[in-house]
Amino acid sequence: MKGVSLDVERGETAVILGPSGCGKSTLLRCINGLEQIQEGEILLDGEVISGRKKDMHLIRQKIGMVFQSYDLFPNMTVMKNILLGPVKAQKRSKAEVTQQAEQLLSRVGLLSKKDAYPRQLSGGQKQRAAIVRALCMNPEVLLFDEVTASLDPEMVREVLDVLMDLAKEKRTMLIVTHQMDFARAVADRIVFIDGGVIIEESSPEQFFTSPKTERAKNFLRALTFQPTTPM
Description:
Structural class: alpha/beta
């Protein structure tokens, strides 16, 4: 990342777009303290959270992150995966968290799978379970790092529907995705990154219909397949 300056308002859904290797995932990892920054500051609710190694585990409880690889513990059931963080890290009542988890699992269509192990789930089900696990920590901000990248096309929709519902609830979210139609539908704002730099910020309508920069125009043009030779 090179001199990135970005504000995300409470309740806003910011979608981060850009070519592979441009720094999208790195930005999320910096926010969550998984990557150390060398300059600048990261603030949450006006409080500096970057560089605080001693209490980073407490800060991460406010910043939920869902990865493309699910990262569910294979030796635990769905419910035990969800309960682990709130009960162990936040010292919350198991009964309270179980009730919240069951409500969220029901909402994403997974209540019947609460006692299943990850190996017994489809990719889309694993990703929805990972989202519920993040939500049960009651985070202030949710980070989603290409959560549909490893899914079959038929499974993508079920995960994107969950994210759409969260956006309607005005959850504060930063979403990295390659799903352009989804980005256009869910975003309050598009942040386009290339080479570790924010090239453009705009509304979804402006970005997809009349991008301001030539780099963004080329990026969108590359997404439309046109045969180089006549069919």
